[in-house]
Automatic annotation (TrEMBL):
Protein name: DoxX family protein
Keywords in alphabetical order: Membrane, Transmembrane, Transmembrane helix
Any Gene Ontology CC annotation: membrane
Membrane topology: Multi-pass membrane protein
Source organism phylogeny: Bacteria, Bacillati, Actinomycetota, Actinomycetes, Streptosporangiales
Presence of the UniProt keyword Transferase in the record: no
Subcellular location, record wording: Membrane
Source species: Actinomadura craniellae
Chief location bin: membrane
Length: 130
């Protein structure tokens, strides 16, 4: 297995884990849905969970990896407003919680870069050529 394949699998695992959490424990996700979005926060929580699971599945499949990774990068950008809302809403929470909320903001950039890199290496062989 190549390094690019391992990276894709790790990205898919991250996305799948986050996607599952949207259904297992939706309340924390509901709380960060920006109020400006129409409809119920729970609907957005479930839709974003489905999107993460779909991206994970697409990244796992070598034939859809490039598109899945690009969709993942778009998803990471798209959920950034929820992270901003969380940081704003948690500004009066105890320091460890507040620090965690603030730390999420700059962490989105490496996730986007990671997904883009996976998309760029998607055509590489699954096995090393010796």
């Amino acid at each position: 297995m190549t390094d690019s394949s391992r990276s894709a699998r790790r990205l898919a695992a991250l996305l799948a884990g986050a996607g599952v959490m949207h259904f297992v424990a939706p309340r924390p996700f509901d709380m960060v849905v920006p109020r400006r979005l129409p409809g119920s926060p729970r609907t957005w929580t479930y839709l974003s969970g489905i999107a993460e699971l779909a991206c994970a599945a697409a990244v796992l499949n070598p034939r859809t990896r490039r598109l899945g990774a690009l969709a993942s990068a778009g998803l990471f950008v798209g959920v950034f407003p929820a992270n901003v809302k969380m940081a704003y809403d948690w500004r009066d929470r105890p320091l460890p919680l507040r620090a965690g909320a603030y730390a999420r903001l700059p962490l989105q950039a490496p996730l986007v870069v990671w997904a883009v890199k996976v998309s760029q290496t998607a055509g590489e062989s699954e096995f090393r050529k010796d």
